[in-house]
Design goal:
Keywords: Membrane, Transmembrane, Transmembrane helix
Distance between the termini: 62 Å
Number of helices: 9
Number of domains: 2
Structural class: mainly alpha
Oligomer: single chain
Strand content: under 5%
Shape: elongated
Protein name: DUF4405 domain-containing protein
Order of helices and strands: HHHHHHHHH
Radius of gyration: 25 Å
Transmembrane segments: 12-33, 40-58, 70-91
């Protein structure tokens, strides 16, 4: 690929992806539009990694020279220490989406505890699950246990539990 073609297309694509990934990452950081942006951010981020890799490959000698400089060593060391600090601060737990943790708690809770959380009575919950084709033997069982026994996925059970039939 010629230098002019490279600068014209690859560099422009890299700059565009940097802008979109940077903006979407900033919005996700501030919890704005997370559900709309997460997939876009992840996929375009992978594209950005590919284009950045092409940039490094195209500019190999300059990159190798850059890697010998003390300022570059300091920047990499700082990045590694910061990443390690964030990982240690999380305590190994997923501190991500609180909705995921809530859904996991809901799927592991006994049905007797789940019913009032979703705003229905125990008999209504039993009726909804039974109408979905999953008989309930005891209110001490969880959606996860029902899923294991019935083969119906937990999201389908949860949807049946919260959906009002009209």
């Amino acid at each position: 690929m010629t230098g002019i073609l490279w600068r014209k297309h690859i560099t422009a694509a890299t700059a565009a992806l940097f802008s979109v990934v940077g903006l979407s990452g900033t919005l996700i950081f501030f919890h704005l539009g997370e559900s709309l942006l997460k997939g876009l951010h992840e996929w375009l981020g992978l594209g950005f990694v590919v284009l950045a890799g092409l940039h490094v490959w195209r500019n190999g000698p300059a990159f190798i020279k850059l890697m010998t400089k003390p300022a570059t060593h300091a920047a990499f060391a700082l990045a590694v220490v910061a990443a390690g600090g964030f990982m240690l601060a999380s305590g190994g737990e997923d501190s991500g989406n609180p909705m995921r943790r809530f859904v996991q708690a809901a799927e592991n809770a006994p049905l007797s505890a789940l019913a009032p959380v979703i705003g229905i009575s125990e008999p209504v919950l039993v009726e909804r699950l039974t109408q979905a084709g999953v008989p309930v033997s005891a209110m001490t069982i969880s959606l996860k246990q029902l899923s294991d026994h019935s083969g119906m996925p937990v999201p389908a059970l949860l949807n049946a539990a919260v959906t009002t039939k009209k």
